Amino acid sequence: MGRGPRRGGRKRFTDFKTLEAEAKELKERKEREANGEEVTSSEEEGETESESEETSSEEERRSGEAGKKKGVEGLIEVNNPNFKPKKAGTKARDADLNSAPTLTRREREALEAQRSKERYFKLQKEGKTEQARKDLERLALIRKQREEAAKKRAEEKAKKEAAGSKKK
């Protein structure tokens, strides 16, 4: 929201004179610092008040960026374990064609799951898993029951034939 009853927010626009003066001042400071001289406060007081008001916020921002670190940051260097600098992209000439491609975690887990399924089915075909043993026991029991039922049917048929031949 703007300040006051006027519309437009009372915007301030910079003029080229102040920008040129700032650039010139920065160059002088850098030259002095490079030469080993310290910037004196009397030279800074020589600026006009209007220029200093407009440039003070910009200078603070710049000095904050390039200035000292606040608090303990300057004394202690902290390595963030979650921060990984971006790697430069690999070039085709640098790529090693003979090495196996690196897989993502999901791809690796999917391959492991597929291999374990194949291994399990192979063991199951050979009858070495517990489920396969139970299935084979159940099948043996069913075969035995069917054989007994077939014997009973054959005996009953033989009895009927014997009884039928006696009646005739």
Automatic annotation (TrEMBL):
Q: Where is this region: Disordered?
A: 1-132, 147-168
Give the signal peptide range: none
Point to the regions of Basic and acidic residues compositional bias.
12-35, 58-72, 104-132
Top-level lineage group: Eukaryota
Q: Which residues form the Casein kinase substrate phosphoprotein PP28 domain?
A: 80-158
Regions of compositional bias (Basic residues) in chain numbering: 1-11
Can you tell me where the transmembrane regions are? Answer: none
* Composition bias type Acidic residues, residue spans: 40-57
Question: What name does the UniProt record give this protein?
Answer: Casein kinase substrate phosphoprotein PP28 domain-containing protein
Organism name: Chloropicon primus
